[in-house]
Structure formats: structure tokens, C-alpha cells
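Incident review: delayed structure delivery

Summary: a single-chain prediction request sat in the queue longer than the usual turnaround. Root cause was a stuck worker, restarted by the on-call engineer. No data loss occurred. The affected request and its eventual output are reproduced below so the record is complete for anyone auditing the incident later.

Affected input:
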Amino acid sequence: MRRDEMIEALRTSPFRPFRMYVSDGAEYEIRHPEMMMVFRSSVNVGIPVDNAKNSDSNGSHSYPDLVRSTAIDLRHITRIEELQPR
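Output delivered after worker restart:
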């Protein structure tokens, strides 16, 4: 995936959560724009403690508590797709 495509997905206003698919079969849900940092040839994705704990009674998502992160080369991101509201 191209760097500018990832930046566009994060800067969409209003932000629309998306799932990112990686060539090794891994999937990452990006439910807040601050869960990901885009670099020249990679992204750094924050891994939340528990997605279920990061929504309020209305189903809206607050900033998640991140416990770790992982770096992913942009060449290994196969596609992204918008997530449907919970």
C-alpha cells in the first residue's frame, strides 16, 4: 500500500474506523486515528488492551488504552476496509 493512501485513511474527516490486512494474514482494527503512525516505508500500529473496554454506553469510541505497538512495512499491507459501526 502507498504511504499517501494510509495518510488519507487516517485524515478522513470525520474519521472512519477501518481494518487493515497484512500479507501474513494478520488484521488490525484502527478505531481511532491516533492508533497509527505513518512513516516513510512503514506504519506503527498501537495494540489496545481490550477493544470492548474502549466504547461508552452510546457505542462511540474513546481513545483506546494501548499496551504495545507493532511496526509493519507498507509493502505488506494488502488492503484496508471501512468497519461497520458496532
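Verification: The helical segments are 3-11.
Action items: add queue-age alerting; document worker restart procedure.
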